[in-house]
Amino acid sequence: xxxxxxxxxxxxxxxxxxxxxVQDGFVPLLRQMPGFVxxxxxxxxxxxxxxxxMFENAHEALASSELAAEWVRDNVMxxxxxxxxxxxxxxxxxxxxxx
Length: 99
What we know:
This protein is an alpha+beta fold. The chain has a single domain (2-90), classed as 2-Layer Sandwich (Alpha-Beta Plaits). The chain is built from 2 helices and 4 strands. Strands 2-3-1-4 form a 4-stranded antiparallel β-sheet. The two termini are 20 Å apart. The model has no long low-confidence stretch (mean pLDDT 93).
């Protein structure tokens, strides 16, 4: 599994608006991408949002990063402050709740 973690600083009070736009517009696009495994959006501090995107391989994850950059630019850029930080890599451990 390959993971992309992005951290965005947003305008004061904009996290819920950002999250709703992502739910309505970006998540459906991710679900259509080959190799998509999962996505989480986390409010990780005052005016900070982090996203965790999981794909089956690096090629698919990097394609999602290109999509994310375009989508942010076109849909939530006015709510964003500064440039996002991001990191990418292969998952060394994945632990899920057992059924």
